[in-house]
Amino acid sequence: MQLKTLDTGFFKLDGGAMFGVVPKTLWNKQNPADERNLCTWAMRCLLIEAGDRLVLVDTGIGRKQDEKFFSHYDLHGEASLADSIRNAGYTETDITDVLLTHLHFDHVGGAVVRQGDRLLPAFPNAIFWSHSAHWQWATAPNPREKASFLRENLLPLQESGQLRFIDTDGFALPGTELLHVDGHTEKMTLPKLQVNGRMVLYAADLIPSAAHVPLPWVMSYDVRPLLTMQEKEAVLKQAAAENWILVFEHDPTTEAATVELTEKGVRVKDRGRLADLIGG
Fold first, then answer.
1. At residue 279, does pLDDT exceed 90?
2. pTM of whole model > 0.90?
3. Which residues, 6+ apart, have CB-to-CB distance to 85 below 8 Å?
4. For the chain, is the Cβ count within 10 Å smaller at the N or the C terminus?
């Protein structure tokens, strides 16, 4: 199995929303805000090469929304999902599976493209994997998350016949375990992968950046923030004890890191490119 991170560009979100109850005097040192209180965030996907399967984890925000929608998020940067896939030596038709950690627009938006007046899956030969409980949660959303679950990102996957559910249809990839957490949203799925004798966790929005490693640094977007803290604590303690590599989906500068237990709790130990941390 081989892993590659894929850059899809950057967007901006409110710093207070991303750091919750943490004071700006603290988080602004980690990710400085602009004059509108917006911080820059990555949308970093993961490509898994495993035998005859090529698995894409998450898809970024995509490019099919209108100008008004994108005006709220200030998309910038040169990278795109399609270009990053090509730079890795593949095309969209080579993707066999798309594992969606959850269905918020900045994670699933690139799964669907607009072709004329039609909305179609961006990866015509792929199976799209979600959790059935999360799919129900997303297609009948609560008022808190409704703006994050967009029908145009979801229904075309179902209508195409390419949608499967990991808990009922049996997503299976050797060397891979799927962790399900419920603090950020219902049944978010985190792939944990064994590569070169190292454990790699794609942390999605449980730990969206290296700055979010300290336990109280929890996003205001989380529907169950106290549960997020419990889930983070369990993951981080095991990650520190077993020297896991954490891949950060939204960190604008740190691609991946290891963590260690200190007197102040779990903290980042080594950080860098995923390929360098894996070695081999």
1. no
2. yes
3. 6, 47, 56, 91, 92, 94, 95
4. C
d(CA 78, CA 95) in angstroms, rounded, equals 22
What's the CA gap between 108 and 112, in Å, rounded?
8
Please, where are the H alpha helices in the chain? 15-19, 24-30, 67-71, 81-87, 105-108, 132-139, 151-160, 225-242, 274-278
Domain 2-278: give its CATH superfamily.
Ribonuclease Z/Hydroxyacylglutathione hydrolase-like (3.60.15.10)
Question: Is residue 280 scored above 80 in pLDDT?
Answer: no
Structure tokens at 250: 């939204």
Count the helix, strand and coil residues of the chain and give each as a percent rounded to the nearest 5: 30, 30, 40
Question: In this structure, what DSSP letter does residue 178 have?
Answer: E
Residue 192 CA from chain centroid, whole number: 13
Q: What is the CA radius of gyration of the chain?
A: 18
Determine the Cα–Cα distance for residues 238 and 169; give it in Å rounded to an integer.
Answer: 29
Helix axes 132-139, 151-160, angle to 10 degrees: 130
* Lookup result for tokens 């799964």: 111
Instruction: Give me the DSSP letters along 208-252.
Output: -SGGG-STT---TT-SSHHHHHHHHHHHHHHHHHHT-EEEPSS-S
Query: What mean pLDDT value characterizes the chain?
Result: 96
- For 241, half-sphere exposure in the C-beta direction (CA atoms, 13 angstrom radius) is 6
